[in-house]
UniProtKB/TrEMBL annotation:
<protein>
    <submittedName>
        <fullName>Tripartite tricarboxylate transporter permease TctA</fullName>
    </submittedName>
</protein>
<feature type="transmembrane region" description="Helical">
    <location>
        <begin position="466"/>
        <end position="490"/>
    </location>
</feature>
<feature type="transmembrane region" description="Helical">
    <location>
        <begin position="46"/>
        <end position="69"/>
    </location>
</feature>
<feature type="transmembrane region" description="Helical">
    <location>
        <begin position="199"/>
        <end position="220"/>
    </location>
</feature>
<feature type="transmembrane region" description="Helical">
    <location>
        <begin position="359"/>
        <end position="382"/>
    </location>
</feature>
<feature type="transmembrane region" description="Helical">
    <location>
        <begin position="318"/>
        <end position="339"/>
    </location>
</feature>
<feature type="transmembrane region" description="Helical">
    <location>
        <begin position="147"/>
        <end position="163"/>
    </location>
</feature>
<keyword id="KW-1133">Transmembrane helix</keyword>
<dbReference type="InterPro" id="IPR002823">
    <property type="entry name" value="DUF112_TM"/>
</dbReference>
<feature type="transmembrane region" description="Helical">
    <location>
        <begin position="394"/>
        <end position="411"/>
    </location>
</feature>
<feature type="transmembrane region" description="Helical">
    <location>
        <begin position="110"/>
        <end position="135"/>
    </location>
</feature>
<feature type="transmembrane region" description="Helical">
    <location>
        <begin position="169"/>
        <end position="187"/>
    </location>
</feature>
<keyword id="KW-0472">Membrane</keyword>
<keyword id="KW-0812">Transmembrane</keyword>
<feature type="transmembrane region" description="Helical">
    <location>
        <begin position="418"/>
        <end position="446"/>
    </location>
</feature>
<dbReference type="Pfam" id="PF01970">
    <property type="entry name" value="TctA"/>
</dbReference>
<feature type="transmembrane region" description="Helical">
    <location>
        <begin position="20"/>
        <end position="39"/>
    </location>
</feature>
Length: 502
């Protein structure tokens, strides 16, 4: 009851006219930045950081929180419509969301994404308020061995679930791990796969790879087939129906709930942000879809979009809780916000709720307000956003390439990055041409550094004793889950081949 009373007092502080203005402004900025390929909420917060010196801390962090949540909404919008997610956290949503858009159901896809993000954000806001201490205690049990096991589980699950061929899935994963190792080794200082080029010393930009793989690869694929097979490849025009049917809502509702449940724990586990839970949610929904009489994945399944959207926003909300309660930044945006706290002379952590209650509780209350504002901004304009698909394909895809290039150049003004972006796009085109899945490459690049660092830290802490990887109950449980995933895939392959023989 004390927390509820404090939250109500926080609403009293957050519902002032000026703070409401900062919530609205943050949501608008976050959404606008999110729809630009290659940009995201982390860049927006970084750019706003030097501009908020004149604001009091409460107003500044309410603005940052609006940008943080709004970025996820914007990322999903362009990922669904044009297959160009602004951040890696929106990758999983593009698979079924873009398929829905191509089938003429763009307004419904955007509505599913908006509602999923809203529900995930609300659930996480409630969890931050009432259950953050328990989740923080759970996250404290994760050490290097646990993170390594978690990364292996993600590798196995994604590589096996998104490809009909295990070999193709593992090939894509290995390519992602190779890209993740490019650069100077942070421990030994050795150059890895740089080929003597100074431009590769800092590694390969995830933004360049994501935009090149998903956007430019799709553009090249469409360009090569636009005259041969125009109808299946052109984006479908949005239909007259503007909202979800009862069947679509009923289909998406369980996925929203499952996605929010998957995303919550990852908000306090530092695995890089919302990428891992969104992929895991997509994995769960795809496996459940295969049990249905009429599988919909690949054709624009609402569940495949609803789950990742709810998981992404649930993770984001809990990440803010981890930052406030533990001083633990679990994503790039949270790390920038930690710098903002220090800029104001405030140290996040367990004592923050006592020493700066007048900041914490209005900020937590603003999470609820931001979710409502974002829903009101995005849901009614789903049909308007969907009309972007009425642009003739040559102009539409040319515009996508231009905005992708501008987004990459904004993140790193380097001609090398633009040329590398072109090379990644050509690789993505070849992967699409030969049915090699893109998702394992992306998840390998996202989780590769985590797996490598965790393995090294575990071995250093155990003096080279490899038994440390199975020393605790959490790694064992994760390895068992990995074996279950592999066994399920092997069984599926055997059953499929036996049916073909019959």
């Amino acid at each position: 009851m004390d927390q509820l009373q404090l939250l109500l007092e926080g609403f009293a502080g957050a519902l002032t006219p000026m703070n409401l203005l900062w919530v609205l402004l943050g949501c608008l900025i976050g959404t606008a930045v999110g729809v630009l390929p290659g940009l995201g909420s982390s860049m927006a917060v970084a750019l706003l950081l030097p501009m908020t010196f004149a604001l009091d801390p409460t107003a500044a962090f309410i603005l940052f929180a609006g940008v943080y949540f709004g970025g996820l909404f914007g990322d999903s919008t362009m990922g669904i419509l044009m297959n160009t997610p602004g951040q890696a956290s929106a990758i999983a949503s593009t698979f079924e969301g873009h398929a829905m858009a191509k089938a003429g159901r763009a307004p419904q896809a955007l509505a599913i994404a908006a509602i999923g993000a809203f529900l995930g954000g609300i659930v996480s806001a409630v969890a931050v308020t009432f259950a953050a201490p328990a989740l923080a205690e759970f996250a404290a049990n994760f050490g290097p061995a646990e993170f390594f096991a978690l990364a292996l589980l993600a590798f196995g699950a994604i590589s096996s679930v998104v490809a009909d061929s295990v070999v193709k899935g593992l090939t894509s994963l290995v390519l992602g791990l190779v890209l993740a190792t490019v650069g100077v080794d942070p421990i030994s200082g050795a150059e890895r796969f740089t080929f003597g080029s100074m431009y590769l010393f800092d590694g390969v930009s995830l933004v360049v790879v994501v935009v090149g793989m998903l956007a430019l690869g799709e553009v090249l694929k469409v360009a090569t087939r636009i005259h041969r097979d125009p109808k299946p490849e052109q984006l479908g025009a949005p239909g007259s129906r503007k909202f979800l049917s009862k069947r679509e809502f009923k289909d998406a509702a369980p996925a929203w709930a499952r996605g929010a449940g998957i995303g919550l724990p990852f908000g306090v586990i530092p695995v890089g942000g919302a990428e891992v839970p969104t992929f895991l949610s997509y994995d769960v929904e795809r496996r459940l879809d295969r049990r249905r009489r009429d599988p919909q994945f690949g054709k624009g399944a609402p569940r495949g979009l609803a789950g990742p959207e709810a998981a992404g926003n649930a993770t984001t909300g809990m990440a803010m809780g981890a930052l406030l309660a533990l001083g633990l930044p679990v994503s790039a945006t949270a790390a920038i916000m930690l710098a903002a706290f220090r800029q104001y002379g405030i140290q996040p952590g367990p004592l923050l709720f006592d020493t700066s209650a007048d900041l914490v509780w209005p900020l937590l209350a603003s999470f609820f307000i931001a979710m409502v504002v974002l829903l009101l901004i995005n849901l009614p304009f789903a049909q308007l956003w969907a009309k972007l698909l009425l642009i003739p394909p040559p102009y539409l895809y040319a515009g996508i390439v231009v905005f992708c290039g501008l987004g990459i150049y904004a993140t790193s003004p380097s001609m090398f990055d633009l040329l590398f972006f072109l090379g990644i796009g050509c690789l993505a085109f070849l992967m699409r041409r030969y049915a090699v899945p893109v998702a394992p490459l992306l998840i390998g690049m996202v989780l590769g550094p985590l797996a490598e660092t965790s393995m090294r830290d575990a071995l250093l802490g155990s003096n080279g004793d490899y038994s440390v990887f199975v020393a605790g109950p959490i790694p064992i449980v994760l390895y068992v889950l990995l074996l279950v995933v592999v066994a399920f895939k092997v069984r599926q392959v055997v059953v499929t081949r036996s049916r073909r023989d019959v």
